């Protein structure tokens, strides 16, 4: 597997449903490329027609390479990999980016009953969904799973002080795909803004940040994918501006064994794939890093508890549940108060 891959968690596509033609002589800049084991795209309205597209592309590449160097669980030379290899409780000097990601993860971990846990890497690996090996397509041995679970659950024990990160247990490993991609989107947005652009949409592997308005002067229209494993259709359209957006679901990355379906989303309490009927969670947040983390946490929690958390934290969330246990049955939705207010 290439060493520049940060994650392979999901392959959702959240689509902009309207890219209008230029108005008032503005240019629409469209850029794309590969990063973090997936692709990125940028769509921006250049009102003054003064942005050097090649320079913007170069700056984007430099920023995303830096994110990979900090957060990739697949690159043995990355900061995350070096921290994981440190079998010690001594503090390690880290970048501002990694410290920020860990602090955000600790916050979501605390607020989600521990369901968002970046130290679940050994459990994820045991189920075959991690960085080291492809899916094993079978339940892990009971002793192997117990050992993996015993070394996980330490997100709350990670200590961040300034630019240092410390384990309280030397065998702790951190696994950041469920927050790192959103962080990458936010860094991408920073680069685009630095070129004087304020109306844009940036996306990495389905995680999105939108700023301002589209070329029609309206809020960006973003399609939320239907949680159907056998098709790619738009389930609902959200109007979004100046927000990050992320969707987590259990319908792309899974395996089946002996007639049973195993999702890549792990219940942090049991160490096993989720079994509830929640198929997809979409979160709108101030930044994409938090939208990314919360979409995973609330999918693990399930709609009933997740909706309680979302309303308590004033999070904008839409849950999509299956009507039955059938993988591609009909769907029903539940939305938080904040999500309803934003879409009113």
Supply the key terms.
single chain; alpha+beta; T-fold; eight-stranded antiparallel β-sheet; three-stranded antiparallel β-sheet; disordered N terminus
Order of helices and strands: EEEHHEHHHEEHEEEEEEEEEEHHEEH
State the share of residues found in helices, binned by percent: 25-40%
Q: How many β strands by DSSP?
A: 18
Biggest sheet: strands, sense, closure?
8 strands, antiparallel
Mean pLDDT: 87
Anisotropy-based shape? globular
- Give the strand order, joined by hyphens, for the main sheet: 2-3-7-8-11-16-17-18
Task: Let me know the CATH homologous superfamily of the domain at 78-174.
Answer: ApbE-like superfamily
Structural class per helix/strand content? alpha+beta
CATH class of the domain at 78-174: Mainly Alpha
Radius of gyration in whole Å, from Cα? 20 Å
CATH topology of the domain at 78-174: T-fold
Number of helices: 9
* Euclidean distance between termini CA atoms: 44 Å
Work out the strand percent. 25-35%
CATH architecture annotation name of the domain at 78-174: Orthogonal Bundle
Low-confidence stretches: 1-21
Mind sketching the topology for me?
Layout: E1 15-16, E2 27-35, E3 38-46, H1 53-71, H2 79-85, E4 92-93, H3 96-111, H4 121-126, H5 142-150, E5 159-161, E6 164-166, H6 177-194, E7 200-204, E8 207-211, E9 220-225, E10 234-240, E11 243-249, E12 254-257, E13 260-263, E14 266-267, E15 272-273, E16 278-285, H7 288-301, H8 303-313, E17 316-322, E18 331-335, H9 337-343
Antiparallel strand pairs: 1-9, 2-3, 3-7, 4-6, 5-6, 7-8, 8-11, 9-10, 11-16, 12-13, 14-15, 16-17, 17-18
């Amino acid at each position: 597997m290439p060493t520049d891959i940060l994650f392979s968690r999901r392959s959702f596509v959240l689509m902009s449903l309207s890219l209008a033609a230029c108005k008032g002589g503005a240019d629409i800049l469209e850029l794309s490329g590969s990063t973090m084991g997936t692709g990125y795209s940028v769509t921006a309205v250049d009102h003054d027609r003064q942005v050097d597209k090649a320079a913007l592309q170069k700056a984007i590449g430099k920023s995303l390479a830096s994110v990979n160097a900090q957060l990739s669980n697949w690159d043995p030379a990355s900061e995350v990999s070096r921290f994981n290899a440190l079998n010690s409780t001594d503090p390690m000097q880290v970048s501002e980016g990694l410290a920020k990601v860990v602090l955000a993860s600790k916050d979501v971990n605390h607020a989600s009953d521990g369901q968002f846990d970046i130290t679940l890497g050994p459990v994820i690996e045991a189920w075959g969904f991690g960085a080291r090996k492809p899916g094993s397509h079978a339940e892990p041995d009971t002793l192997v799973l117990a050992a993996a679970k015993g070394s996980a659950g330490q997100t709350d024990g990670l200590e961040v002080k300034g630019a240092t990160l410390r384990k309280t247990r030397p065998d702790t490993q951190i696994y950041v795909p469920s927050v790192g991609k959103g962080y990458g989107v936010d860094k991408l947005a920073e680069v685009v803004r630095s070129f004087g652009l304020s109306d844009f949409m940036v996306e990495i592997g389905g995680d999105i940040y939108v700023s301002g308005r589209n070329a029609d002067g309206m809020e960006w229209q973003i399609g939320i994918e239907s949680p159907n494993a056998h098709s790619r259709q738009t389930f609902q359209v959200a109007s979004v501006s100046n927000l990050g957006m992320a969707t987590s679901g259990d319908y792309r990355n899974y395996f089946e064994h002996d007639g049973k379906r195993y999702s890549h989303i792990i219940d942090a309490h049991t160490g096993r794939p989720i079994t509830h009927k929640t198929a997809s969670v979409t979160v709108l947040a101030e930044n994409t890093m938090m939208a990314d983390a919360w979409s995973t946490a609330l999918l693990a929690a399930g709609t009933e508890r997740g909706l309680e958390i979302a309303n308590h934290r004033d999070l904008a969330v839409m849950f999509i549940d299956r009507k039955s246990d059938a993988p591609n049955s009909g769907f029903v939705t539940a939305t938080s108060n904040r999500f309803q207010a934003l879409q009113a």
